[in-house]
Amino acid sequence: MLEEGKKAPDFTAIDQNGGKVKLSSFKNKKNVVLYFYPKDMTPGCTTEACDFRDHFKKFKDTEILGVSIDSPERHQKFIEKQNLPFTLISDEDKKVVEKYGVWQEKSMYGKKFMGIVRSTFIIDKTGKIRKMYPKVKVKGHVEEVLEIVKGL
């Protein structure tokens, strides 16, 4: 079970360009906003990504990493279409979403299915989880995250 104040689970995953991203590579260098979202190019996910894009310059000394189970190619299209200035991680094998406990049973129109629960983790330069946002509501979320990051 993940807790604020505890070490964030490390991972190595593939970004939109097929390159490797290792969480621990940011240790002692940058804070990390690790946000999990269900699917590229859907309304809520696009709004959230564009909110991070629009506030991107305010996130000094912070790496923003978006994670979904979409392919690197789909991430690349999403980045190009929305002009996103940050990295999107492709977690097709679901290892990262499972480590962070965001791959859960969901329900829509009475149907149950497994999917990503929109969540954000703020990880400080020491690699500890400073703040967790389970079940994120998109409106106003980026501003909340920015306030926490400014205090690190």
Question: Overview of this structure, please?
Answer:
There is one protein chain. This protein is of the alpha+beta class and 152 residues long. It has a single domain (12-150), classed as Glutaredoxin, CATH 3.40.30.10. It is built from 4 helices and 9 strands. It has helices spanning 43-54, 72-82, 95-99, 141-150, and strands spanning 12-15, 20-22, 31-36, 62-68, 87-90, 103-108, 111-116, 119-123, 129-133. The strands form 2 sheets. It has a 7-stranded mixed β-sheet, covered by helices on one side. A two-stranded antiparallel ribbon has the order 6-7. The radius of gyration is 14 Å and the shape is globular. The protein starts with 11 loop residues before the first strand and ends with a helix. The relative contact order is 0.24. The model has no long low-confidence stretch (mean pLDDT 97).
- Strand sequence of the main sheet, in spatial order? 2-1-5-4-3-8-9
Q: Residue ranges: pLDDT <50 for 5 or more in a row?
A: none
- Counting DSSP E segments of at least 2 residues, the number of strands comes to 9
Structural class: alpha+beta
The CATH superfamily turns out to be Glutaredoxin
**How many angstroms does the end-to-end distance come to?**
23 Å
- Give the fraction of residues assigned to helices: 25-40%
Quick tags:
152 residues; alpha+beta; Glutaredoxin; seven-stranded mixed beta sheet; two-stranded antiparallel sheet; 25% helix
Short description:
This protein is α+β, with helices and mostly antiparallel strands and 152 residues long. It has helices at 43-54, 72-82, 95-99, 141-150, and strands at 12-15, 20-22, 31-36, 62-68, 87-90, 103-108, 111-116, 119-123, 129-133.
